[in-house]
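Severity: low
Component: inverse-folding endpoint
Summary: output formatting inconsistent between runs
Steps to reproduce: submit the following structure tokens with default settings.
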């Protein structure tokens, strides 16, 4: 059986030394797990453009997306293999509005490991938890 490959980009959104953590809804796959806001890359888009578009759509915010990749991870779930590429983003305009998630938290790097994260996000969480963003 062929595994479906899902390529997504994730936003590690930083504001005042804290990281935005978003909780998935109960009706979605991976119910109530925490994640970095993600989106699929559409044809003709760069990963950064995809993140910019998705964050406007999902959280009603505008961000500045780093040019450099922060982390790349893959995880095979029962619905397919997720290839997640994360980028550091900085809030530019607006405050996050919940449209796709049931909760958000702004946490310091040393606090984020306490949440129950989606497996594909864990490598970036481990890396972030070691950073000093102050």
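Observed output (run 2 of 3):
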């Amino acid at each position: 059986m062929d595994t479906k490959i899902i390529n997504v980009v994730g936003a590690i959104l930083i504001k005042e030394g804290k990281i935005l953590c978003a909780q998935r809804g109960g009706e979605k796959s991976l119910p109530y797990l925490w994640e970095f806001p993600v989106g699929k890359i559409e044809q003709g888009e760069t990963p950064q453009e995809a993140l910019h578009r998705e964050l406007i759509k999902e959280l009603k915010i505008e961000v500045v997306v780093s040019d450099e990749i922060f982390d790349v991870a893959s995880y095979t779930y029962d619905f397919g293999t997720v290839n997640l590429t994360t980028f550091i983003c900085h809030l530019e305009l607006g405050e996050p509005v919940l449209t796709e998630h049931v909760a958000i938290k702004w946490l310091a790097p040393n606090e984020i490991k306490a949440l129950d994260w989606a497996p594909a996000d864990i490598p970036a969480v481990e890396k972030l938890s070691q950073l000093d963003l102050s």
